[in-house]
Inverse folding.
């Protein structure tokens, strides 16, 4: 069974632009919201991760815009960890209009772990509890 | 000779995040700044395009983050139109630290033309002056 | 009894800046979120208001920053309509750390109604149902 | 003679909202841009200030919106330091449409100096070079 994380909220007025749709840059911010929500629900609140001296920069991000979203709508993001090897990991996001279930956008981000000097960190040794949580989560998706 | 457009400005304080680097979503906004600057220099100010009833939504966007940028730096974006067929077009962006000439990020966006009802518009008939400007610009790159 | 509206949510990573606190401009956006939540709970969803051809621009905004807020915290805004005369209205906002109940910021915004040509609109005649909802709400506060 | 600092740039597409005007929160960000430009022209680049371990949080901000600004316009901000006592200081901002010279908004921000633990810092002793620069600048305004 796939255990995909759901995150939903209303679209804000300040997220729209003069085309009367959500500005495309905000989807990248929504992916971050969904990712941080995922971390929290997986038992790894993101501010706890950073308190341990680990940071998780974004290596790449992409988004395909399928249907423009508007103020007054609720979006729902289904977030899925699609890769993890202890050094890097990847997420996939599907953005739905929560009322109509229409797929409105989809995208991906890739990440690594770095320490406070922005040097790549291998978490299996230094942060075994995060490694286990990630690996366990990723394991579920493989089945 | 390639006639690639250059756009540069200082990084704003409000573009940083608590990792002390530019938040990754802002590069997508910078691409838009560079693209609109490109349109203007190519003789098609973007607000003129919209006054004609044409809009140019983003169909997809991606960005690879190579080196984190910080407050106090100046970025330079080299923008290149890599595809144009009268209905769709694509841009490529390379983001440099303007002081060191280091490549810090690169990305692409793809676009189409739509009318005010968000229906796809073929501009060669309805907007021949934009079509000519785009085609002429794109032609330069092919040589 | 005062019927003050409460709005709460988590602070987003992209709302922080390199001082490791929420960038001060975001409180102005939070006021908008709280205001729109207020409209909805008062039975006047903001997108319905705009569908009627009414817009509600901001005439002024101010914020006093009392204690810096950070990623990982939940903010709660208590929103209060402090003036309404059918043409203009005012809101007050108090921003609390929802965990500690510390007052972290407070502010105000003032507004008017305009039609789609940005001309001031007096809503008691043209939009009696909005007028009643506002007046009724405001009445509660006077007692 | 008053030596008021001028800062100007084009309005970005992503700064607009679905009312087809600049979202009001962006003026608070523009004030920051103008303020940082002021610091730089006064010989105190803001990132140098922070490298010395000083930060300059915002204590309060306000803005009056006089005329809506739109995409395609250039704004000009005239920035004026109106108070400085070695611990706190204040700025005033006037936002003009640079083409028409119409005053479109005006606002103020107040600030203090803090060290890296967010404790108030008195700069006349610890940072005499900043103190002199500020005091000298402020002196000009008094005449």
């Amino acid at each position: 069974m796939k255990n995909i994380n759901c995150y939903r909220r209303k679209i804000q007025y300040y997220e729209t632009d003069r085309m009367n749709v959500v500005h495309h840059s905000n989807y990248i911010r929504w992916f971050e919201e969904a990712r941080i929500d995922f971390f929290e629900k997986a038992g790894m609140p993101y501010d706890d991760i950073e308190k341990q001296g680990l940071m998780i920069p974004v290596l790449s991000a992409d988004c395909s815009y399928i249907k423009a979203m508007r103020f007054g709508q609720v979006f729902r993001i289904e977030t899925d960890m699609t890769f993890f090897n202890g050094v890097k990991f990847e997420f996939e996001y599907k953005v739905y209009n929560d009322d109509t279930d229409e797929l409105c956008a989809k995208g991906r981000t890739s990440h690594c772990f770095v320490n406070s000097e922005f040097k790549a960190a291998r978490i299996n040794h230094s942060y075994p509890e995060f490694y286990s949580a990630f690996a366990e989560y990723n394991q579920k998706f493989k089945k």
The first strand of chain B starts at residue 5 and ends at 10. Chain B has a mean pLDDT of 91.
